[in-house]
Amino acid sequence: PSVNLYPEKVKQVREQIRFALFRQALFKIQNVEVTYMDECRDTRVLQRMVQGRGSISASLLDLRNPKDVELIRDELWTIDRCGQGAHYEVRFYKE
Question: Which spans in the chain are helix H?
Fold first, then answer.
C-alpha cells in the first residue's frame, strides 16, 4: 500500500497518535487524583507503566463493546500518591 511510500510521515503520525492517547489517559487520571487532594496535597508522580493482561472485570466489560471496537493495548500505571501506589488500568481501543 501507499504506507510504504512515506515511512517517515507514517512514523511521525503514529508518534503523534501515541502521544495524544498518552495525554488523554493522563488527563483522566489527573481528574481522579484531584478528588484525593484533601487527603494528600503532594505532587503526583507516574512511577511505572507496564503492559498488562487486563483484569477479569475489564475483560467482561469488553464483551459489551460493539463488534468494531478492538482492544489495542492494556497497561497498568502506578501513581505515587503520598508514598502509596495508586494503580490504574489504562486501556486503549481501536474503533
Answer: 7-34, 56-62
The pLDDT tens digits for 27-74 are: 999 999 999 999 999 999 999 999 987 788 888 888 999 999 999 899
- What pTM does this model have? 0.79
Cα(38)–Cα(56) distance, rounded to whole angstroms?
A: 32
Cα end-to-end span (Å), the chain: 21
Phi, psi of 91 (to 5 degrees): -125, 135
8 A C-beta contact, residue 92 and residue 73 = yes
